[in-house]
From TrEMBL:
Signal peptide: none annotated. Phosphoenolpyruvate binds at residues 48, 84, 196-197, 207. The gene is ptsI. Its cofactor is Mg(2+). This is Phosphoenolpyruvate-protein phosphotransferase. The chain holds residues 253 to 567 of 573 of the full protein. Its EC number is 2.7.3.9.
Amino acid sequence: EVAAHLAEDHAPGATADGHRVLLLANIGTAEDAERAAAQAVEGSGLFRTEVLFLERETAPTREEQAATYARALRAFGDRKVVIRTLDAGADKPLKFATQPDEENPALGVRGYRLVRTVPDVVTTQLEALGDARRETGLEPWVMAPMIATPGEAHDFAAAARAQGITKVGVMVEIPAAALRADAILAEVDFVSIGSNDLAQYTMATDRLRGELADLIDLWQPAVLDLVAATAAAGQRAGKDVGVCGESASDPLMAVVLTGLGITSLSMAPVAVPAVRYAVKAHTLEQARAVGQAALAADDAPGARAAALAALAPGV
Ligand code: PEP
Ligand code: MG
């Protein structure tokens, strides 16, 4: 009953005093895009395009890719759609692109780094995104995963702009990128924090090892520090800093992220109503206090408890 009540609220994401935080859907296919677009979301903050490449002997053609991207763009119409370029490698191996013999695949050739080994795959995808943009007349936001340096952000932005893409971003999911967020932001129009990998690389903890879940907890204060530093850099630059990892779907964390200055939250569509409710229950000033309380904690359970204790009384 509570869920049904929450689902009736279709308002754009905002705090009690009207500070906007976009509520976006994570998607993996054109069908996902159509399903998500039918719900009360403000667009997609993460289209995981590698889904189109998995279980194949060769890469999908430029035409096939363009058709998929165009379908996703059309599904959302004038709403925002952030399309992530191929994030193969490590937990997402590809037959034609990733090396099977890497000893440390999470630290190897994955994400944007594929440009070193299979540059044509990366180029063809950007060409297909340019095609989809021209075909639909809609403006995709395009971002690269696993960026470590401002130089990589620069090279990716140049390659994307060469295909006519005008909204170019990168993911912040490597601590080096968070620590140098000002320089990264100088190269691109926006960034999006991948909290799953940011936690994995900050805590040196494999995201797939259940027995280490306490270490990779997204409430680890060191991870929150890097999120806060990235958000602050975004505010200095006047550019959007989103979160598209699992963090964004936790309502209490969503209040923390809002308070730290994150401007959009992208999550599984099912999580949107509860996050909308949590963000709306607080003013920006209250959310800031919740964020600072979490940052001041010594460990992950302490950060969660401190955030909860700092919530407005009665919520
Ligand atoms: C992340 O790392 O948080 C992220 C959103 O990307 P993925 O989970 O696809 O690696
Ligand atoms: Mg990631």
